[in-house]
Amino acid sequence: MKKIFSYLPFGFAAMLMLFTACEEKERPFPEFEDLENGAIARLVDGVNGEFDFENIDGTSIDFTVEFYDVNQGRDVASYSWAVNYAGMGPAAVKSVDAGSFSTNDDGLPQVSMTITFREVLDALGLDQSGIVPGQAFDLQATITMTDGRQFNSSNTQSNIQGQPLYRSLLAIRQGVINVPCFSVLAGEYDVTATVTNQMAGIGWDNCEGNTYTTTVRFTAEHDDTQFGTGVYFIETQDANGDWQHDNSMGGFYPCYTGTQTDPGGLPNGTTDDGGLRLNEDCGSLFWTGASQWGETYFIESVTVNGADLTIAWSNDYGEGASCKITRTDGTEWPEDLIDGDG
């Protein structure tokens, strides 16, 4: 008998767990307690559509979400979207209040939304010329409750946004198709050049890790400064503050210290002596021509991190440097810049 009674609690507990589990399945979101009484906009259809550079007024994205909270979604007052782009924003794009929600078959508030490409550009005050190749539009949603609380991607756990159960739609990263190739390097920027060792067995190897910070200027030499392949004349400021033709992008200064005041030792590559130039074609960076000493140059790597563009170069003599080029105009580099020699 002791064995029978000793197993009864276990059997009862097991049955209780079974019934509890069955009851849990009847609720739409049994793990909703994880949200700490917040709200979610669960994606039930989409995101559909696209943004097309060649059809700004005719393209859009759309989606349908249903709302859930401790009161079956009835405490959601509004669902709004804003946009960030290339250092601009957030700018309000569109908002829908509870009066425009419908009720779906599960008894939850639901709304279908369309955000047009034109609405996004207008919110930012941009036209077609302001579209940056490789730069996506960062759309961010906010759920506002009737008591004034707000929920967005910054205060909602990533598992709530990403897990299939919830699929809470609070952010969309939307790229643009059919964007022409812009020439995007022209301008003046801060640059920090760090010498890299090419293991060539020359004096340059001993300068590995040396750095120098100055200003670099890229001047477009091609006729069309907006579309197509860009060809660039590169200058840096020497220690006297004078601009010098310098395809090393400051990389020679920390090793050949005499070049800081004597530009004769910088790799310039004028048209008459090889025409060394940096090119950019649809985001692909590569060198053409040679330096005045006949050296050919290569792009080793290209890394984009917001306002920082790092270009690592080398040449067939055995010199090389990693140059971090930093924008100071409040914008970011296009994300699709790559090593064209790779």
Chain-wise SSE layout:
Layout: H1 2-25, E1 40-49, E2 51-52, E3 60-68, E4 76-85, E5 88-97, E6 102-103, E7 109-116, H2 117-124, E8 137-145, E9 150-152, H3 158-162, E10 171-174, E11 176-177, E12 187-195, E13 211-220, E14 230-237, E15 243-245, E16 277-281, E17 284-288, E18 297-305, E19 308-315, E20 320-326, E21 338-339
Parallel strand pairs: 2-11, 17-21
Antiparallel strand pairs: 1-3, 3-7, 4-5, 4-8, 6-7, 8-9, 8-10, 12-13, 12-20, 13-14, 14-15, 14-16, 16-17, 18-19, 19-20
Oligomer: single chain
Give the biggest beta sheet.
10 strands, mixed
Number of contiguous helices: 3
SSE order: HEEEEEEEHEEHEEEEEEEEEEEE
- Strand portion, in percent? 35-45%
Helix content: 10-25%
Count the strands? 21
N-C termini distance: 78 Å
Q: Which overall shape is indicated by the principal axes computed on the Cα atoms? A: elongated
Radius of gyration: 29 Å
The structural class is: mainly beta
Low-confidence stretches: 1-35, 158-166
Provide mean pLDDT, rounded: 84
Would you mind describing this structure in some detail?
The model is unreliable at about 1-35 and about 160-165 (pLDDT under 50). The longest helix is centred in the first third of the chain and has 24 residues, at about 1-25. With about 350 residues, the chain is mostly beta strands. About 30% of the residues are buried. Strand 4 (about 75-85) and strand 5 form a beta hairpin. It has helices at about 1-25, 115-125, 160; strands at about 40-50, 50, 60-70, 75-85, 90-95, 100-105, 110-115, 135-145, 150, 170-175, 175, 185-195, 210-220, 230-235, 245, 275-280, 285-290, 295-305, 310-315, 320-325, 340. The radius of gyration is 29 Å and the shape is elongated. The chain has three helices and 21 strands. Strands 12, 13, 14, 15, 16, 17, 18, 19, 20 and 21 form a ten-stranded mixed β-sheet that branches.
